[in-house]
Give the backbone structure.
Amino acid sequence: MYIEKVKKNMNLPETVRILDTTLRDGEQTPGVALTVDEKIRIAKKLDQLGVNTIEAGFPAASEGEKEASREILSLGLDAQVCGLARTLKVDLDAAIDCDVDYIHTFIGTSPLHREFKLKMSKEEILSKSVDAIEYIKDHGIIAEFSAEDATRTEFDYLSKIYKSVEEAGADYINVPDTVGVLVPTAMNWLIGELKKDINIPISVHCHDDFGLAVANSLAAVEAGASQVHATVNGLGERAGNASLEEVAMSLITRYDIQLDMRTSQLVNLSEFVSRITGIKMPPNKAIVGENAFAHEAGIHVHGVLEKAETYEPITPEMVGHTRRIVLGKHTGANALRSKLDEYGIEMTEDQFCTVYDQIKNLGDKGKKVTDADLKAIAVTILGRAKKQIVKMEGFAVMTGENVMPTATVKLRIHDEVKTAAKAGVGPVDAAINAIQSLISETAYIELKEYHIEAITGGTNALAEVFVIMSDQDGNNATGRSTREDVVMASVEAVLDAINKILMVI
């Protein structure tokens, strides 16, 4: 609504091209090194997604980089294949030898780069920039020029160098915010001023040192930039680059700029790149994170279940995601009912309340309740004996190094409270021995089978215990319990089975 009010003041381009630099700048992420095969696999997925240009690497850097560029070119992708090169002839020749469609050449222009890195004058840098563009165009290749550290370069000089490379035949100029120092209003101003004198498309390459790479990229588009450099998951040097998925979805849904992109593949691509690079995404990562479409708070879940748009700006399917209703201490009754309905689990109101209370209790203990946990808890509640002839009144266990495991159990049996303490080979065995000793006066019931399973990983996983108990007449009954405490789960499962047997005696 409010975006529409300010759009009329923007100089939005009709279309925006995406140059993906995951295979080049993304690979410069500390700790990331891609093989040729891995680059090929990522390139195929980028092409399937629909990016316009793939920066395949830096051919002059190594033979592996050259091989990767050649192999990617041989795939016959729809996307253009770009090679990075300094304004040095040796770099340009390395890229040209790979037969790339597109060369992105660069040289530092800021005072810092001129004085400390290049030790060159403004005139020398300008001359090298023009020569590089002319050399690329003499070979019939698309040329993009970057003034490295543009956002710390004096504007008059920056404008002069961009106009000079445009006159030399450059197809694109690129404005790199090399160390991510701009804020969106400054980026908007800079692109707007450059647009007054530059007639070829303007591209931007933003870094995320202050968390502003996406915002600066969008500010540039608002001022008329028609190409954005981005990486999958925002990979890149230091804090990374503008995130491809965030830029793309913002352009499409916030600015109504249509991209040639199959956005439903974004999550798959993100997860694929994360696995290959070993760089895991935080769960709250926008668009593609595990929690991007996850809801726990009762108010939010209720709204989403009634109409998804109340708490979701886009549909999860649009990016290949799925909506998740997360269970925990913030869970509301509507969320729990929705989950139970999803799994076809029908319950009485009392059973539902029991499950609800257990979910809340686990959440208060900091436990993340998974769908597997919920199903196990629900099955346990549904399978409980209808009548509690034997009830737990108290329980304690003692175990440790050089200590005989001992359990003390207090049960109410037919309204009579009894207590027993027994030892065992372990705390579970001791607890079951104590229960059997108390029940023996009522009926002879023994344990036939005992199974335990951790539902989810981790030391705080819920334990699901399943038992089969039998009496002297051959009556068998199953018992089940799901708890974070293995011993308590075992005790509850045994008592559940005992109650079922006593009901038929």
Remarks:
- The mean pLDDT is 90.
- Residues 390-504 form a domain with the Double Stranded RNA Binding Domain fold (CATH 3.30.160.270).
- The two ends are 70 Å apart (CA to CA).
